[in-house]
From TrEMBL:
Protein name according to UniProt: Cytoplasmic tRNA 2-thiolation protein 2
Record pathway: tRNA modification; 5-methoxycarbonylmethyl-2-thiouridine-tRNA biosynthesis
This protein's encoding gene: NCS2
One Gene Ontology term from the biological process aspect of the record: tRNA wobble position uridine thiolation
Organism of derivation: Eremomyces bilateralis CBS 781.70
Pfam families: CTU2
GO cellular component, one term: cytosol
Subcellular location(s) of the protein: Cytoplasm
PANTHER family: CYTOPLASMIC TRNA 2-THIOLATION PROTEIN 2
Keywords associated with the record: Cytoplasm, tRNA processing
SUPFAM superfamilies hit by this protein: Adenine nucleotide alpha hydrolases-like
Any one GO molecular-function label of the UniProt entry: nucleotidyltransferase activity
Family statement drawn from the similarity comment of this UniProt entry: Belongs to the CTU2/NCS2 family.
Chief location of this protein within or outside the cell: cytoplasm
């Protein structure tokens, strides 16, 4: 507003002069959340309520008489998934206190993204295990998904060479044309692995640690990459396109609010704050679409947080869940896709050897796949 006093309000209001909390009207505020000054206790309650409200499906009274429900929580060791684990941990303890039982068990999954094949140890993982010893932790490596990707590709084309010279996952990723392609494909492989592990461990749903901020980034990035068709099946709560329900209990919270929550309320979570949690700008050179969207949403969120919330709401609720009209399932991302959605108006069937959705065809050009997978022909040099 013009002529307004020069007191700048930060996103979390940490620099503001202390005022009385608007909720309890007693304690001094420690932060300003969505223009409300809140004290420590009320800020904590605010975060917890937003999460627990999204977990209605998993109340104690909904537990079947013949067994416990299991939910998989993939842990990236970033502040979002750690905050989710922390809040759900307290939620389960409260359920147990009140009713003697819990609405679900948590299986916490950590994925080693190092491609080394031998699972490396992350000191942050040890810290998380020490903090939450009551929950089951399992680990997996991103290389574990490669076999299932290969079999999706092979099931589409039996002409592919089984000559023992299969490319490794790092070879495949390094053959992709850009940082955007690699980030995109890695993200979908991670999701496939999480779904495989959830099914394998009899989990009935996956609880993702995506905040409103992250969902907005994903919405814009997926649209930019040509996968807008699958958005509502990817970011809504409930049935997903991958055959297991997804839930996003942090969908009503911004990343900055979780950072403030760690800094002001739950100091032990601060070890999980990464350099990105405070970064202001991303170099645009060599950035993937995802990184640019992160930077963009970060800047929008500082001035216009309601726009960010709106992006997610629009994609999740206003786009109708369109059941797949065709049996085409993309060999990379496993999302059902419509062949008729080729934006250039060309049919994709004639030149494609592999069934890939529009988005994956941009990330993984056919030449890249055939180059890696085709048997050398007899006339080739030995
Ligand atoms: Zn208060
Ligand atoms: Zn795809």
């Amino acid at each position: 507003m013009e002529g307004a006093p020069a007191v700048r309000q930060t996103a979390t209001g940490q620099n503001e002069a202390n005022r009385v909390c608007v909720r309890c009207k007693e304690a001094e505020s420690v932060t300003t959340i969505r223009s409300e000054p809140l004290c420590k206790e009320c800020f904590k309650k605010y975060i917890h309520t937003k999460v627990v409200k999204r977990m209605e499906t998993f109340r104690v009274r909904n537990v079947p008489s013949d067994g416990q429900r299991r939910l998989l929580l993939p842990l990236s060791l970033g502040i979002s998934s750690l905050t989710l684990l922390h809040v759900l941990h307290l939620h389960l303890a409260r359920q147990k206190n009140r009713t003697g039982q819990t609405g679900f068990d948590l299986i916490v999954l950590w994925i080693d993204l190092s491609h080394s094949g031998t699972q490396s140890r992350d000191p942050l993982l040890d810290a998380a295990k020490r903090m939450f010893p009551q929950h089951t932790f399992i680990s997996s490596s991103i290389t574990d998904v490669w076999t299932s990707v290969l079999s999706s590709l092979y099931s589409q084309d039996t002409q592919l060479g089984h000559d023992g010279n299969l490319p490794s996952l790092p070879e495949f990723l390094s053959s992709l044309p850009s940082a955007t392609s690699r980030a995109d494909v890695s993200e979908h492989f991670k999701k496939r692995l999480v779904v495989n592990i959830a099914k394998h461990n009899n989990c009935e749903a996956v609880l993702w640690g995506h905040t409103a901020t992250r969902l907005a980034e994903q919405t814009l990035a997926e649209t930019a990459k040509g996968r807008g068709f699958s958005l509502s099946g990817q970011i809504s709560d409930g049935d997903s396109a991958l055959g297991i329900p997804f839930y996003y209990p942090l969908r009503d919270l911004f990343r900055k609010e979780l950072v403030a929550h760690a800094e002001l309320v739950e100091g032990q979570l601060c070890v999980f704050l990464g350099p990105n949690d405070k970064k202001q700008a991303v170099s645009t050179r060599d950035s993937s679409i995802d990184a640019l969207m992160t930077s963009y949403i970060d800047s929008v969120e500082r001035g216009y947080p309601s726009i960010v919330a709106n992006v997610v709401r629009t994609a999740g609720e206003k786009l109708t869940k369109r059941p797949p009209q065709s049996s085409n399932v993309c060999a990379i991302c496993l999302l059902p896709y419509h062949d008729d959605l080729e934006p250039t108006g060309q049919s994709n069937g004639n030149t494609s050897q592999f069934q890939l959705c529009y988005g994956c065809r941009q990330s993984v050009p056919q030449g890249c796949l055939t180059g890696l997978f085709e048997k050398p022909s007899i006339s080739d040099k030995r």
